[in-house]
Amino acid sequence: MICPVCKSDMIDVEHADIELEYCVSCHGVWFDAEELELLLGSMGFDDHGLPLPDILHAPEAPTEEKKRRCPICGQKMKKMALGVKPEEVIIDVCPQGHGLWFEGGEVGHLLRQLAKKQPAAGDKSGQRVVTFLGEVFHAQD
Ligand SMILES: [Zn+2]
Ligand SMILES: [Zn+2]
Questions:
Q1: What was the pLDDT predicted at 48?
Q2: Could you tell me the sign of the dihedral formed by the alpha carbons of 116, 53, 75, 98, in that order?
Q3: What's the pTM?
Q4: In angstroms, what is the span from residue 121 Cα to ligand 1's centroid?
């Protein structure tokens, strides 16, 4: 898969059933829709019910960030805010629901937010995502 930012070939990173694409040049990360569900669960969105269709129909976040194109279908992605101000992270979401894109610095930002939350007991998949991201990105920082 080609990085939507710098057009480098991204690498597959896999750990504990979670797979994502990582750009070694700009440190961006692509999650496909399934990994996205695990990630959202890990952020506590399970409780409030925030499945992918709701994200896709939510209003776009106001931001100066440049639009990116989905690495799967090539359509321009929507800017969406995850988390709570002032700690929110602006991510790019494919309007077709293929997945979402984190710019390089955003993953670290998200991890710091996740680290502040105590993962709910029994939320194994969410913990796996956090552990996974920590392992992958601490090594790269
Ligand atoms: Zn890149
Ligand atoms: Zn797409």
A1: 47
A2: positive
A3: 0.71
A4: 35
